[in-house]
Amino acid sequence: MSDHDNRVIETALPSTEYWPPNWHYAADRPVATGEYRQRAEDFQVEEQFDFAPEGQGEHWWLWLEKRGLTTPDLARLLARAVDIPVRDVGYSGLKDRNAVTRQWFSLALPGREPPADWDAGLAERGVTCLEAVRHPRKLKRGVHRANRFHLRISGEAAVSSATRERWDRLVSGGVPNYFGPQRFGPEGRNLHRARQLLARGWRKRQDPQGLLLSTARSYLFNTVLSARVADGTWCVPQPGDVLNLEGTASRFASATIDDALLARAEAGDLHPTGPLWGCGRLESDAATAERETAIATGFAELSDGLVQAGVRHDRRPLRLRLKDADWDLQGDSVWLSFTLPRGAFATSVLRELFRHSTLM
Question: Less Cβ around it within 10 Å: N or C end of the chain?
Answer without folding.
Answer: N
